[in-house]
Amino acid sequence: MRSPLSVARVRRALSGHPRRIVAAVVVVVLVAAALVWVVRPQGPDFRTESALVSVRSGPGGDEPVDLDTTLYLPADASEADRVPAVLLAHGFGGTKESVRSDAEDLVARGYAVLTWTARGFGRSGGQIHLDSPDYEVRDAQRLLDRLAARPEVRLDSAGDPRVGVVGGSYGGGLALLLAAQDPRVDAIVPMITWNDLSRAFLPESTGKAPTEGVFKKGWAGIFFGGGGNAGSGPAGLSGATAAAPEGAPASAGPASPQPGAGPGSGSGRAPGGAADPSCGRFAADVCAAYLRIATTGRADAAAVELLRRSSPAGVLDRVTAPTLLVQGEADTLFPLAEADANARGIAAAGTPVRVAWFTGGHDGGAGPTSDSDRVKFLTAQWLDHYVRGDGPAPGDTFTFSRIAGFDALDRGLVATGYRTDDYPGVTGQERRDVALTGPAQPVAVPPNGNPAAISAIPFAGALGSLLDGVAGDIPGQHARFESAPLDDPVDVVGAPSVRIRAASATGEAVLFVKLYDVDPQGAATLPDGLVAPVRLTGLPADLDAATPVTVTLPAIVRRVEAGHRLRLVVATSDQAYASPAEPAVHTVALGDGPLVLPTVDAAPIPTSAAVWRWVLAGLLAAIVVGLVVVVLLTRRRHRRQDRSIHPEYAGVPLAVRNLRKEYADGFVAVSDVDFEVHPGQVVGLLGPNGAGKTTTLRVLMGLTQPTAGEIYVFGHRLVPGSPVLSRIGALVEGPGFLPHLSGLDNLKAYWRATGRPWEDAHFDEALEIAGLGDSVHRRTKKYSHGMRQRLAIAQAMLGLPELLVLDEPTDGLDPPQIAEMRRVLQRYATDGRAVLVSSHLLAEVEQTCTHAVVVNKGRIVASGPVEEIVGESPSVLFEVSDPDAARSVLDRLGGVRVLPDDDGALVVDTNGTARSEVVAELVRAGIGVDRVVPRRRLEDAFLALVGENSRGSGDR
């Protein structure tokens, strides 16, 4: 059934006057706006229930604790229309408000979402046990019971809700541990979380146990501080979204893995009692373990056991819920190897597992929008299939991403996603071997690790890559080994490895191994600030006796371009880790074997951003092709025109015929200019300011189009892009040079751009004209105005063009240089060459030019040889032996007037008195008369032609 606004009526409306079209469009827009207003959401399409829920947990399941919860329910959820559920956990230091935005996105997809503030944080009671199976995990089990009791939640069986668990960092660890402990969980999405908490905080990159690990004091301090202040300290590991103050919304979308730094909230005390100031709301055993490790920098077996109690590593074989593991590449807290260990442990039990790496993490946030959108899609796809039962199985393809550049619209970063059918792990599918070179090097250990290199900075690990050469690696405290420039690019996806040797009189060494990407200019980048800490024991004092050890560096995703080098740095300190207290000196060398780089053969994932980039690229390409076609057609037309030569002007360097230039506002800059420049002539273009001189030259050089008239150069009609322009050298509207290049290099760059043969440039003649001497090798940014002017004239003379056009060539030159320029122009106008020069120095034009063209108010008022324009003169020039005495004699003659002259000669207006009588009077006074010639200056003729007060209306 058709709308009342039928197609025929629309056609009739659009076929009339343009005003009808506008009216029709307005009607359609208003109707559409009204429809949008009618159907727009009138508010959130869900309801919430907040409550302080009391649950019982602990080893015996009988210790009460109050948890601050909020349940989000779709508006239409009911006992008759049950919906699946999601248990949404926040990151360390956050609260339920940290994930509110995620909860709203999930409830909009039709899920009942239960959020809560974990024990020890915010308004919830209890103490922090670091996701202990007896405490935080049992708390979550009681929340599953609560979901099972809700009439709106779909059940698999009595007491078994249809539920997925989503969380980041602290919440991600909980998701894994809960799935291992409670089979009711149907799917989980753990993000940026750990496998072994002891290894995460006490890493050792040669494979030793955490008791031999190097304490990650920077992150551990923030971790402990996040809960040590009773829930009100920094939210060091907020996880799924940025931790926000109680009651404040978070901004991330569904399950966006963005770490945050906002505080949780709370009274600062655990409910029911005062907090221990040493431990805040941490449980006593957790607090004691931290204090022991932080004091000694080493972990004992009891501390490792406690941390492993809160680690998924030992229970992954019990996880039966399909698992989507999302891990950040920019993460110095829980690097990619943690997710790799979780994936392998879960897959070994036959449980479906999918792994996704993205460009964010604890140090990189949610990554670019294009990347966080990909993670949101994967999360929704996983939950929809395994929890709600919709859509095909997501499969187990591996995806990762890499920063690709900037978005053309908002200038934000864009990440390109890649996929491969099989998960390669951090070892990659293939390997690329790169040889490193460098001698054995001594490295000093600073006392107590101070000063320390800065590589990994919590929440901003990638910032360490910006500190190279400033505070990155401390001189004397690191050794460097480098590769040759790469012949072709390599895409590193995984954990590189290398073998090193070390010797020390102490028998032990703590080292920090890093891999830099060094560009051809020497700028070094440490990918995401990732460092491999190593503790070597049983070292010999002599390096020759040292056994090579394999160091596995953190997994990265990076494209190393061709021409870049790889630099392996072995340092003795790092700000993020605990270092030995005693100073020492070690010797470090490369071991046997190359640097091994893992690679993955993956295909790009199409995204809307990528599609739009291709559309934009296609549009730009079409524009470029169109412009090229227009230029080619224009040139072709001009070439057709240039084939014909006006026979009358074939041997004339320049012929200007009836030139007129009128602007859009009606201003007439040139109304009727008509002149010629012939071989051997130096023609001066003269006129007051605003007369039209510069406009004439601009038209001549193709810088602006004339309204009417023609210009011929050697018989060719002059048009923009005409090949005959190559026979003209010009200096119009001042010189322009690249300031970072020398004068000579500027001249060479200019000539190279012309595409003409190198031998035709005549550099020696041009440089002799410029007279710059050794200054021609200096950068032009250090040139004076006069030096730039001389260089510009030399550039105009490159190739010895047959027609030279100069606008105020003596501007900025001193008197000796002006005199030299006069001789240069006169010499240049030989062998059939010609010069057109515009100048306001009439005396110079008179002494330099053979011909002159006088323009006033856009018209030629005189043209011809200079002597003809000057004409007969009533004044006489006297060259005498004593000018002062002669002046006194002539002043006494009636009617004779002595005129001022800048050159010191006598210019006399005889006013009808015979010249012989004047000469006789001077001789009688004993004054010798050497020469008597008629005298009229060009200036006199110029003023007579244009008037002393004449001025133009403003040249353009």
Predict the CATH topology of the largest domain: Rossmann fold
What best-fitting shape do the alpha-carbon axes yield?
elongated
Poorly predicted regions are: 1-42, 230-254, 258-274, 465-471, 951-956
Query: How much is the average pLDDT?
Result: 82
Name of the level-1 CATH class of the largest domain: Alpha Beta
Structural Rg: 43 Å
Q: What share of residues are in beta strands?
A: 15-25%
Overall tally of domains: 5
- Quaternary state of this entry equals single chain
What's the architecture of the largest domain, going by CATH?
Answer: 3-Layer(aba) Sandwich
| CATH superfamily annotation of the largest domain | Alpha/Beta hydrolase fold, catalytic domain
Number of strands: 40
From the N-terminal CA to the C-terminal CA, the straight-line distance is 66 Å
The major pleated sheet works out as:
8 strands, mixed
Number of helical segments?
Answer: 22
Structural class: alpha+beta
Q: Please list the strands of the largest sheet in the order they lie side by side.
A: 1-2-4-3-7-8-9-10
Residues in helices, as a percent range: 25-40%
Region (Disordered): 234-275
Family: Belongs to the ABC transporter superfamily.
InterPro entries: AAA+_ATPase, AB_hydrolase_fold, ABC_transporter-like_ATP-bd, ABC_transporter-like_CS, Galactose-bd-like_sf, P-loop_NTPase, Xaa-Pro-like_dom, Xaa-Pro_dipept_C
Biased composition (Gly residues): 261-271
